[in-house]
Structure formats: structure tokens, C-alpha cells
């Protein structure tokens, strides 16, 4: 569904991502993890064409991204950044309606079908009681759900999320991640997230991509990637890794900081 081949990305004269190869299959839920400054968000923006690639190719549904019109990309893929802002007078319903823009003619108005999709997206995210509320009046978790509703109204095949749990308390973090997982599983939307919390990445991912210093260090299922040795090498942290009974994913218990080893 989404594939990067030999991709290099940089800006302001600095190269951030180096010759990355990554393939994300249709319907997968993938988390990108790694230390601060390793290039996680830059890679996500390169996959969405928000940042141009210096070299290499990104393909979306088999087509090279650089050859596709922006509107067509927006019909197939949506990216939500770490911090999303709206005008002070915008309601939840108005925000969600913006998800229909890629499907409208430049001179068009919302159709009955568009309104039905907007209602559906609001219902999917549990925001019926908030549809007339101003987005700026919502809590962090409610606002994040409103942005996800906007993304759903766009009807994308691929959803990219850059640290979707940033600034949220633990309850709202889990609420948002449960919503994202239900969107992925029930609607079949291919989902790629940048996450910092290793336990969240473990619990909510089909596979994990580890980035260090602009290179992909390894990819695989959570139980293959999140080992004590990998955490020590990538983060310089000693950690205990356990499998809770009946769980298919590992639980990480950081213990202490160590000297970072070279890969």
C-alpha cells in the first residue's frame, strides 16, 4: 500500500533520512519508534510528500507519489501532525466537513452524500454530543478525536499520525489509541504512527519500525523488535521484557540508563 525505496530526505542543508527502504502492507498498523532526533517525523512527512525526497521513490497504492496530483493523494492518504490548530470559531462539525474537500470540485458544495459521510465520521468517533461545540473548547482527547473524525471523513486508504498521544494524559492516550485501532481493524485503513511509548507501540502495532540516526535499524513484529538487546542498543537503556500471560506482545520495564552501544 505504501512503499519507500532508497529514500533520502533533508532540509536546511542537513540530511535527516538516509537511503531508507520501507514497505507497509494494506491494512497494517505500523509504529515508527526511535530516540529523539532520529528522523521519525521527517520520515512520516516524506511518506506523505509534505517534505520532498532528495532521492529515492515513495509509492502509494502502486503509483509513484511525485507523479500524483495533490488532490488525488489527499483522496487516498491523510496525515495528522503533532499539533493541529483551528480558527477560534470553528465547530467540530465544520472541522470534520473539511475532510470532504479532496472529493469536491473546486466550485462545488457539500452534497447529501458528503453530509452523510460527515455524520458517519462523527458517530464513529463518538462526537455526536460535541458536533456544535467549538473545537477550541474541547479537551485534548476530544479534540484529537475531532481531528481523527476529519480524517475519516476524508475516506483515506492510509492514515499517518505523528505522535497522536502528545500532550494527553494516560487515559486520553489510551482512548485515542483504541479509536485508532478500531479504525484500522474495522475500516481496514492502513495506519502508520510515530510513537515514543514503547509499551503503546507494542500493544497497538502489527509491526514496528525502529529508526536511529536517520537509518532503519530493524523492522518486525513487536515480540521480534522489542527485546532487551535492541532497547539497550537503540536507547542506551537496560530493560526487562516480559510476556504477560495470554498477551501476544511484550511489556517493557525500563531499569536504568546505560552507555549507548553502536549498532
TrEMBL record:
GO BP annotation list: iron ion transport
Domain annotation ABC transporter: ranges: 2-238
InterPro entries: AAA+_ATPase, ABC_transporter-like_ATP-bd, ABC_transporter-like_CS, P-loop_NTPase, Siderophore_ABC-ATPase
rRNA-binding recorded as keyword: no
Keyword flag Plastid: no
A GO CC annotation given for this chain: plasma membrane
Domain of life the protein comes from: Bacteria
GO molecular function: ATP binding; ATP hydrolysis activity
Membrane-related topology note: Peripheral membrane protein
Main location per the UniProt record: membrane
Signal peptide bounds: none
Subcellular location(s) of the protein: Cell membrane
Keywords: ATP-binding, Cell membrane, Ion transport, Iron, Iron transport, Membrane, Nucleotide-binding, Transport
Protein name: ATP-binding cassette domain-containing protein
